[in-house]
Amino acid sequence: MRRRAFLARSSALAGGCAATSVVGSGRPVGKPSSYTILDGTKYATEVFVRKAGDGPTALVVGGMHGDEPSGYRAARDVAKWRIDGGTLVVLPKANRVAIRKSRREGANGDLNRQFPTDENPQTTLARAIWNVVSRHDPDVVFDLHGSIGIYGYHESSVGQVIWPTDAGDASEYAKRTVEQLNGDVVPWYMPFHAYRRGDELGGSSPMLVHKVAGDLDKEGYIVETTKFLLDPDTRVRWTKRATADLLSRHGIERRTDR
Predict the structure, then answer these.
(1) pTM of the shown model
(2) pLDDT value at position 258?
(3) pLDDT tens digits, 15-58
(4) What is the DSSP string of the chain?
């Protein structure tokens, strides 16, 4: 039987959740709010919350690895998105220590290897990130990363891939988003850059999204975009397109009108 953790919701976010406003179209548009985890420490980093009425909750995380700027730059932009419904929670720079040094690992090693299933996260920062998960009880979790090379051509490179958890419709949604990206985003003359759907994640590794699958039985994704032959802005743009498409499949629509 799938394990589930019973999460205690806090009565309010730090500083309070922002109210929903209504603009000229009559559709709700969430106002942003934010709070800081581990405030006053070298790990201090902001969490941004945008609530737009009823609907699902999504958590987007970037910056688990400090040498993968496409992930945290994309998450930083996602934190500014307006939505038509639901709640969007974004932790753009999960590991500020590693980001400041432009290194994969922070002060206590690889942050994305500190979330064992059925156990407490192993470090102060990992526990604080998991507390964000517990606080918002998201329906879906995204972890945005950047890879080095092309899968099958560069040793140990995962290339461009979306890994879904083994919960709900995540695998099917990942497949559809991969098809969308390869049809509309990746140029025809770059076939080796085609995205692929990775194997389902079920809690077998001590990674954030694995823990989401193993402990919570929730839908989630690891999104990887390669830096091979792609300029930084393109990597960020493709990562955001993947995130927007998956969010839409989960019922959270980005609002693009001004």
Answers:
(1) 0.89
(2) 56
(3) 333 333 333 344 555 568 999 999 999 999 999 999 999 999 99
(4) ------PPPPSS-TT-PPPEEE-TTS-EEEEEEEEEESTTSTT-EEEEEEEESSS-EEEEEE-SSTT-HHHHHHHHHHTT-EESSEEEEEES-S-HHHHHHT-SSBTTB-GGG---TTS--SSHHHHHHHHHHHHH--SEEEEEEEESS-TTTSTT---SEEEEBSSTTHHHHHHHHHHHHHHHTS-TT-GGG--EE-PPB-S-SSSHHHHHHHHH--EEEEEEEE-TT--HHHHHHHHHHHHHHHHHHTT-PEE---
